[in-house]
UniProtKB/TrEMBL annotation:
<keyword id="KW-0663">Pyridoxal phosphate</keyword>
<dbReference type="InterPro" id="IPR015424">
    <property type="entry name" value="PyrdxlP-dep_Trfase"/>
</dbReference>
<dbReference type="InterPro" id="IPR012773">
    <property type="entry name" value="Ectoine_EctB"/>
</dbReference>
<dbReference type="GO" id="GO:0047307">
    <property type="term" value="F:diaminobutyrate-pyruvate transaminase activity"/>
</dbReference>
<keyword id="KW-0808">Transferase</keyword>
<dbReference type="InterPro" id="IPR015422">
    <property type="entry name" value="PyrdxlP-dep_Trfase_small"/>
</dbReference>
<dbReference type="Pfam" id="PF00202">
    <property type="entry name" value="Aminotran_3"/>
</dbReference>
<dbReference type="GO" id="GO:0045303">
    <property type="term" value="F:diaminobutyrate-2-oxoglutarate transaminase activity"/>
</dbReference>
<comment type="pathway">
    <text>Amine and polyamine biosynthesis; ectoine biosynthesis; L-ectoine from L-aspartate 4-semialdehyde: step 1/3.</text>
</comment>
<dbReference type="InterPro" id="IPR015421">
    <property type="entry name" value="PyrdxlP-dep_Trfase_major"/>
</dbReference>
<dbReference type="GO" id="GO:0030170">
    <property type="term" value="F:pyridoxal phosphate binding"/>
</dbReference>
<comment type="similarity">
    <text>Belongs to the class-III pyridoxal-phosphate-dependent aminotransferase family.</text>
</comment>
<keyword id="KW-0032">Aminotransferase</keyword>
<dbReference type="InterPro" id="IPR005814">
    <property type="entry name" value="Aminotrans_3"/>
</dbReference>
<dbReference type="GO" id="GO:0019491">
    <property type="term" value="P:ectoine biosynthetic process"/>
</dbReference>
<dbReference type="InterPro" id="IPR004637">
    <property type="entry name" value="Dat"/>
</dbReference>
<dbReference type="InterPro" id="IPR049704">
    <property type="entry name" value="Aminotrans_3_PPA_site"/>
</dbReference>
């Protein structure tokens, strides 16, 4: 599309060429999102990003699920600003601090106790993969077993232990990761259709000649996001919980992207009414895009010795302050009303797409929606169609991410707090784009 055509279709004036020279000169070739979204972003507010060249973008990407409460949420920002103005501690390792005490208190009162969850918390390094690494390490230490069960389509992080339970071959090859005592089982649903993974696991565990030892843990996402937005059914999660309990296996729920309200409830596993042994959280936990990762586990699993698992940035005080404010949002009726209205609007959009028929398939839960442009076509054109839709959206001021095995799924992650008019504008772009591609 040349500039003249772009001006005609978007109604915007031609923009000056953006300067990417310093990024291309100094930054590694590993960079990804900047290639898909070629703009230099300067400011952000709510569900909108503002580029230095004057363009405005609606954000249905939200930092891959890191900004559930939108950019620069006023309520959270005020708390962080006040803390900084008072010279609050910025870095604290795992020392006792006022900021950490406030967060633990707020999290227990707002999230854990109302759900009947009696967990201890461990703060790990700053990213989600750090939480997964700690969870796997704890499971092996507690059980004395080394094996793990993970699922096809899973994504748990990019460090070595997390990669071992991640299904993506490309990511595993880049990390030089082999099996490492991990048995992969088909997820409940996937591009090839449903699968009786619970029955398959039962057969493996009860057959003395299956070649599979009883593992330390089963790790699962209650909604696979990178794998293509596949929510786990409530009955399936309950059956998995029953199987792991019966065989003395720890159940780890990875809530890093699907948690913190993305499904409409704080934990995505809540719809199944189960209690996992271990839960990993990160991404939107801080509520402001500040790095914060946490592992929750049942009290009897706390077999750590002091200093046995550490991390320099496990005490991000600014993140604690922001996360405390995010907890308070969950106690506000206006927050829940806005979230319910946004979920309803997204569900109506999904129903509209489903009613159109054809080979388009939608999946999701709450404020996560996957538009699969490849599952039903059988022509291999799904990834190309998804890429075209993503480019169409970007050219018209909307940022969406692709996921799925081959990038055939357009993933929508609007902020939980998005303004209804902004949500509708973004959905209109997608509606027009789907007709185009």
């Amino acid at each position: 599309m040349d500039i003249a055509e772009d001006t005609a279709t978007t109604g915007q004036e031609p923009l000056p060429e953006t300067d990417f020279k310093i990024f291309e000169e100094l930054e590694s070739e590993v960079r990804l999102y900047c290639r898909t979204f070629p703009a230099v972003f300067e400011r952000a507010k709510g569900a909108e990003l503002f580029a230095e060249d004057g363009r405005t973008f609606i954000d249905f990407f939200c930092g891959a699920g890191t900004l559930n409460y939108g950019h620069n949420n006023d309520f959270i920002k005020a708390r962080v600003a006040d803390y900084l103005a008072a010279d609050g501690l910025a870095h604290g390792l795992d020392m006792y601090t006022v900021a950490k005490r406030d967060f633990l208190t707020a999290f227990a009162e707002t999230v854990l106790r109302p759900r009947g969850l009696d967990y201890k918390a461990q703060f790990t390094g700053p990213t989600g993969t750090d939480a997964v690494e700690a969870a796997l390490k704890l499971a092996r230490k507690r059980t004395g077993r080394s094996g793990l069960v993970a699922f096809t389509g899973a994504y748990h992080g990019m460090s070595r232990g997390s990669l071992a339970v991640t299904g993506n071959r490309r990511a595993r090859r880049a990390g030089g990761v082999a099996g490492q005592d991990v048995t992969f089982v088909p997820y409940e649903d996937g591009p090839q259709g449903g699968f009786d993974s619970i029955g398959f696991l039962e057969r493996l565990l009860t057959d003395p000649s299956s070649g599979v030892e009883v593992p330390a843990a089963v790790i699962v996402e209650p909604m696979q996001m990178e794998g293509g937005v596949y929510p786990a059914g409530a009955d399936w999660l309950r059956a998995l919980r029953e199987l792991t309990e019966r065989h003395g296996i720890l159940l780890i729920l990875d809530e890093i992207q699907a948690g913190c309200g993305r499904s409409g409830r704080f934990f995505c596993f809540e719809h199944a009414g189960i209690t996992p042994d271990v839960v990993t959280l990160s991404k939107s936990l801080s509520g402001y895009g500040l790095p914060l990762s946490m592992v929750l586990f049942k009290r009897e699993l706390d077999v750590w010795e002091p200093g046995e698992h550490t991390g320099t940035f496990r005490g991000n005080q600014l993140a604690f302050v922001a996360a405390t404010a995010a907890c308070e949002l969950w106690r506000q009726d206006t927050f829940h009303a806005r979230l319910a209205a946004s979920i309803d609007r997204l569900e109506r959009f999904r129903a509209e797409l489903d009613a159109q028929g054809g080979d388009l398939v939608t999946r999701g839960s709450g404020m996560a929606l996957g538009i699969d442009l490849g599952s039903g076509s059988g022509s291999g054109s799904g990834p190309l169609r998804a890429e075209r839709l993503q480019q169409y959206a970007f050219d018209r001021g909307l940022i969406v991410e692709l996921c799925g095995r081959r990038g055939e799924v357009v993933k929508l992650l609007p902020p939980l707090t998005i303004d209804p008019a902004v949500l509708d504008r973004g959905l209109d772009v997608l509606r027009q784009g789907l007709r185009s591609v």
